[in-house]
């Protein structure tokens, strides 16, 4: 009986542990080990110590990727923290037809990122829908996909548009737990809509805002699909819109892919994402104190 009580929990957990080990733990350890080697796609590597990491310091494309990934966080995270909250407050109202808008706002979340990317490329192309409308009203064509910074901003807009519905659902769950009495008391005291939002709603959902900030920060720093679909495999004009994850894909794939060097970049991405999570949690603890 004692042996069964000891073994049974592990038998139930075994399938999940095997999946985690095969698809998470093993790839992570393999990447970490390869980062200290000169392994290539078809060539077993040998130990080279910190050579890959020293090379990163002198790799111009690495710094371009780090810059773009950091700018992505700066441009995307504030929008994904605030806009879904406002959207959740809007669709929280019990008015006729609001279910349709909830579904409409959530539709981009379930849509394939490839389909979404191709739709936006079609819209923002030099001969696409947006430029055709701009030319019709006399503004002229704008190089959304040919200008370095406009392309990066366009990819950010796609990320925000696709993520709004997902974080809106998270905020809706948080807003459902905010007592209506707090809003009513603030209204009785003469507080307007903006004042109630700042003094009642934001403090009540602050922990959710921290969660959304952490999730969106990690997701933004690891962005790949949006930029890849809109900028192409080269990463935009002269590769100036390349992100770190795109650099990992470019360097580490193919018959002559530098797996060891790509693994070193992946380790840097991992360390930065962990640091982002720790910073967000530390800031949250300071506010609680």
Automatic annotation (TrEMBL):
<protein>
    <submittedName>
        <fullName>Sugar ABC transporter permease</fullName>
    </submittedName>
</protein>
<comment type="similarity">
    <text>Belongs to the binding-protein-dependent transport system permease family.</text>
</comment>
<keyword id="KW-1003">Cell membrane</keyword>
<feature type="transmembrane region" description="Helical">
    <location>
        <begin position="7"/>
        <end position="29"/>
    </location>
</feature>
<feature type="transmembrane region" description="Helical">
    <location>
        <begin position="197"/>
        <end position="221"/>
    </location>
</feature>
<feature type="transmembrane region" description="Helical">
    <location>
        <begin position="149"/>
        <end position="176"/>
    </location>
</feature>
<feature type="transmembrane region" description="Helical">
    <location>
        <begin position="259"/>
        <end position="281"/>
    </location>
</feature>
<feature type="transmembrane region" description="Helical">
    <location>
        <begin position="103"/>
        <end position="123"/>
    </location>
</feature>
<dbReference type="InterPro" id="IPR000515">
    <property type="entry name" value="MetI-like"/>
</dbReference>
<feature type="transmembrane region" description="Helical">
    <location>
        <begin position="71"/>
        <end position="91"/>
    </location>
</feature>
<dbReference type="GO" id="GO:0005886">
    <property type="term" value="C:plasma membrane"/>
</dbReference>
<dbReference type="Pfam" id="PF00528">
    <property type="entry name" value="BPD_transp_1"/>
</dbReference>
<keyword id="KW-0813">Transport</keyword>
<keyword id="KW-0472">Membrane</keyword>
<dbReference type="GO" id="GO:0055085">
    <property type="term" value="P:transmembrane transport"/>
</dbReference>
<keyword id="KW-0812">Transmembrane</keyword>
<dbReference type="InterPro" id="IPR035906">
    <property type="entry name" value="MetI-like_sf"/>
</dbReference>
<keyword id="KW-1133">Transmembrane helix</keyword>
<feature type="domain" description="ABC transmembrane type-1">
    <location>
        <begin position="66"/>
        <end position="280"/>
    </location>
</feature>
<dbReference type="InterPro" id="IPR051393">
    <property type="entry name" value="ABC_transporter_permease"/>
</dbReference>
